[in-house]
Amino acid sequence: MGAAGVTAVILAGGQGTRLRPLTLSRPKPIVPLLNVPFLAYQLDLLRRHGVDDVVLSCSYMVDDVRGAMGDGRAWGVRLRYAVEDQPLGTAGGVRNAADLVSERVIVLNGDVLTDADLSAMQRFHAERGAAATIYLTRVPDPRAFGLVDLLPSGHVHRFLEKPGPDQITTDTINAGVYILDRTLLERIPPGRAMSIEREFFPGLLADGIRFYGWVGEHYWLDIGNAEKYRQGQLDLLSGRVRTGVQPDGWRDGIALGDGAVIEPGAQIQPPAVVGPTCRLAADSRVGPHVVLGAGCSVAARAVVEGSVLWDGVQVGEGAVLRDCIVASGASIAPRAQVRPGAVVAAGAVVAGAPVLS
Ligand code: GDD
Ligand code: MG
Q: Distance between CA 228 and CA 167 in Å, rounded?
């Protein structure tokens, strides 16, 4: 469907603290998923639902975000930037983009990987005559999210950000995707920090604004910590997320980047993405469920599975990496073991097992 008069605002100004140390070298909106910057998945989703006018609301490491995403043309959208001198919070970030938006705004948290049917959500919003609609999803533990109680009519009854253990009345949470009529943005004062979850939404309820929840049964994940960031990629590799974004050279569960060298006897087990100019030595094994960035090298007899390696990672002979994340330029010594859940910072050196004589 067409979506004239709709602008998307992507909130991409957080510091990504729960994704450190990865976000020390790369801001969260552009951490790579299958070697593609995260925001590309959101732009693809928006475009597939007819929204091609997008504003990125950013404050942290803006130049890096701009460098990776440019004017959005590569993803078929027009991308503009609303930059905050000081972080303005999630509502302030939307307000700061207000001059660039048309009648209706779709707001996305810039760390949500989803294939939500935004066309159906927009129809729901229009049919109800809503002023605001939030996409809701269900999670086993709502404490890290915004808890949303709905009335049987679909109206939002209560919005409670980061509920305490004794405040959990439902498993339905804010999925970080909103449709807002533009006039509501006037409720956000310009130039000061304000939270959409803690102030703006409770304010809509207090003032009796037509505010609905739309419960979607779609893939949904907040990639904002290391385990979820890795999980999102495993899910993409297994085809669990409907997306038009594919790594270069993807075929039969394996993507081989240009100039990658696979020596005889090296094994790649699908699903796996091997970035350009990687080198896999004889008797090494990569996969299943692995992403190698550009220019990684995996030495003889090394094993990498369930793991995400950024660019230029060196894996020494006989090293074993399982279910871990290794940022750019790190080096893993021969025979070292990198355990499940480990996150190795950019440029770090992981020592090998001591040689016992
Ligand atoms: N422009 C701008 N300015 N963006 C910001 C700012 C800011 O000051 N602060 C945070 N953001 C962006 C972040 O970059 C992120 O994309 C989004 O706002 C949400 O911030 P998070 O820090 O990731 O919030 P959260 O995950 O704890 O909680 C939010 O998302 C949950 C769903 O994943 C809330 O919206 C919850 O209610 C929700 O359930
Ligand atoms: Mg988040």
A: 25
In whole angstroms, give the CA distance from residue 148 to residue 173. Answer: 5
d(C-alpha 115, C-alpha 241), whole Å:
6
The DSSP-derived string for 296-332 is: -EE-TT-EEES-EE-TT-EE-TT-EEES-EE-TT-EE
pLDDT tens string 328-357: 999 999 999 999 999 999 999 999 865 555
Ranges 20-24, 105-109, 130-134: which has the least confidence: 20-24
Closest CA to 336 of 357, 346, 322: 322
Sequence-distant (6+) residues with CB within 8 A of 206 are: none
Give the separation between CA 204 and CA 4, rounded to whole angstroms.
26
- Per-residue pLDDT of 294-308, as tens digits, reads 999 999 999 999 999
121-171 residue pLDDT tens = 999 999 999 999 999 999 999 999 999 999 999 999 999 999 998 888 899
Q: What is the largest CA-CA distance in the chain?
A: 76
User: CA 166, CA 171: separation in Å to the nearest integer?
Assistant: 13
- Does the C-beta of 176 come closer than 6 Å to ligand 1? yes
pTM here is 0.94
Ligand nearest to the CA of 90: 1
Beta carbons within 8 Å of 226's beta carbon, 6+ residues apart: 18, 19, 22, 325, 341, 343
Q: Which of 56, 58, 109, 220 to mutate to test the pocket of ligand 1 (most atoms within 8 A of CB)?
A: 109
Of ligand 1's listed atoms, the one at least distance from the Cα of 18 is: 22
Helix (H, G, I), strand (E, B) or coil at 261: strand
Ligand 1 site, residue 161, Cβ cutoff 6 A? yes
Q: With a 6 A CB cut-off, is 275 part of the ligand 1 pocket?
A: no
Q: Residue 334 burial (CB < 10 Å; 0-12/13-18/19+)?
A: middle
